[in-house]
Amino acid sequence: MFVSRGKTLVIFLLVLSTALMGCSAQNNAQKSGAESAEKEKTITVSWPRDVGPMNPHVYNPSQLIAQSMVYEPLVSYKEGGKLVPHLAESWTISQDGKEYTFKLRQDVKFSDGTAFNAAVVKKNFDAILKNRKNHSWLGFINFVDKTEEVDEYTFKMTLTQVYYPTLQELSVVRPVRFLGEAGFPDDGDTSKGVKVSVGTGPWMLSDYKKDESAEFTRNPNYWGDKPKVNKIIIKIIPDGETRVLAFEKKELDLIYGEGVISMDAFKQLKASGKYETSLSEPIATRELVMNTTNDILADIKVRLALHHGFNKQAMVDGVTGGLEEKADNILSKNLPYTNFEVKPLEYDVEKAKAYLEEAGWTLPAGKSIREKNGKAFELELLYEKTDQVQKPMAETLQSEWGAIGVKLNITGLDISTNIKRLRAAEFDLYFWSNYGSPYDPHSFINVTSEKGFGISESLSSLPMKQELDQQVREALLSTDESKRQQLYSSILNTLQEQASFLPISYIKKTAVYQKDVEGFIFPANRDENPFLGLDRLE
Questions:
Q1: pLDDT surpassing 50 at residue 7
Q2: Maximum C-alpha span of the chain
């Protein structure tokens, strides 16, 4: 009896153990299934060009949208121009306005698990300042005197003089963002490249195929709110129509950006009712820069003629389907120091022709192109060839200016070549936009004065250029708010009157996404990515 009961007990325990193991296996399988489902939460987006080398301290071909996924700033720019703590949890500014002391967050790690601290902040600043000339468009860079690691989590930066937009410029996507120790080359000079893209941001680059795709997965060490999806895949699709077809085939979940698809395509996708669409508030002014060092464009009468010589409203309506608004101001009024009235240079063909005649550009009998001293009126307009809005606008300008006797040659270039031509001031007319938030208006006026970026050079034949440059310096260094307002008004009014910038429309970002994507919000910073809050409906 004792043996029989023992056998029964053993059998019972074996059955119970097997059942428990089965339950455990089932639970593990369910858990594994849940984890697999989570891992499959992927958002696929498109971009017109390769993301580049993922170096936080350099410019093109590195793409802002990808750099902002991996690298973070000390200070963040939020809606309404509010500056809030990010990697710095707080800061103080000395009474003389020259010393900035930042208390760093102590819970931050890079994606490789190493610590974020004052030493690595200083190392990044040292790398940036080693190539100061490359970054002089960012005003405060020119005034950094020294940087210090005060203690493990306290960093101090001292300027040679007061510069009021310093904090705002620290919020931009590049170059003042932070690379982990493992990413630095042996000599510390990041302008030559980085070893690996190690940042503190919510994403890290996990797979990369040049000119094809870049995959970003969640940073397991991220200190802030975690992304809701596991992976963002950026597919490189240069052509806008191909991008739309891929989206309609559900090969893409999101199309986002400026000029990434035509406005007609955006309207058609919206009208279909099959997708979600969003249109941002104006983020910048789309305009042409006229190079006054060109003998033709040095004459203000010619510049005014070009302003009056095309139907801006009709072009904006035709190309953007009314989604963008006609611009008369060089900078939109929603930026600081810009809310003042200007006299629009309205469409007036007869006035345009009269200005050209006064400037000596006459139309010989039997010819369609004006001439002066035997020279034909011929200009070149550069545009970025992947931009789905610039090209049709360039073609419209070519037609309308042809009607007043101006031959316009239009040239589409890749972004790197385009920017090289701009910086060298090797252009007649150039499609450009101001920087938008968080850069303007101070970055805009700075670049009209600071040489090396093409804009100041293109304005160099203006008769009051030296006076403008002096006003820019005073505006950026002034601690007197009323004086700053007066200086901005004077600078912007002069540039409007000189007609060296031809404002066309206020740019808006577009977004089209599949119905199962939620949480899309346009970032306040023009160059930030919108991926952190995205989720997929189950």
A1: no
A2: 127
As a whole-number percent, the residues of the chain with pLDDT over 70 amount to 93
Greater confidence, 359 or 32?
Answer: 359
The pLDDT of residue 39: 52
- The phi, psi pair for 411, rounded to 5°, reads -130, 115
Per-position DSSP letters for 289-345, written without gaps between them: EE-TTSTTTTSHHHHHHHHHTS-HHHHHHHHHTTSSEE--SSS-TTSTT--------
- Please report how the helices 390-402 and 312-320 are oriented relative to each other, as an axis angle in degrees rounded to 10: 150
Residues 194 and 96: their CA atoms lie apart, in Å, by 37
Q: What are the structure tokens assigned to 314, written together? A: 């009709």
pLDDT at 479: 83
Alpha-carbon gap, residue 122 to 158, rounded angstroms = 12
Angle at 278 between CA 204 and CA 389, to 5 degrees: 90
pLDDT category at 18 given cuts 50, 70, 90 is: very low
CB atoms within 10 A of CB 416: 13
Distance between CA atoms of 176 and 174, rounded to whole angstroms? 5
Those residues with Cβ within 8 angstroms of residue 185's Cβ, 6 or more apart along the chain or in another chain: 192, 193, 194, 195
Structural domains of the chain, ranges and CATH numbers in brackets: 72-187 (3.40.190.10), 203-280+509-536 (3.40.190.10), 284-507 (3.10.105.10)
> Which tokens is 100 given?
């900035």
CA separation, residue 384 to residues 1, 408, 431, 448 (Å): 93, 16, 8, 21
Lookup: tokens for 46: 């498109």
pLDDT exceeds cutoff 90 at 1: no
Q: Got the DSSP string for 21-79?
A: HHHHHHHHHHHHHHHHHHHT-EEEEEESS---S--TT--TTS-HHHHHHH---SEEEEG
34 pLDDT band, cuts 50/70/90, is: very low
- Other C-beta atoms closer than 10 Å to the C-beta of 216 total 28
Give residue for tokens 């940036």. 128
Other C-beta atoms lying within 10 Å of the C-beta of residue 292: 25
Integer Cα distance of 63 and 67 in angstroms: 6
- Sequence-distant (6+) residues with CB within 8 A of 358 are 301
Instruction: List residues bridging with 407 in a β-sheet.
Output: 378
Q: Which long-range contacts (CB under 8 A, 24 or more apart) does 337-343 make?
A: 337/441, 337/484, 337/485, 337/488, 337/489, 337/492, 338/441, 338/488, 338/492, 340/489, 340/492, 340/493, 342/493, 342/496
Neighbour-count burial for 35-70, b at 16+ CB within 10 Å, e otherwise: eeeeeebebbbbbbbbbbebbbbbbeebbbbbbbbb
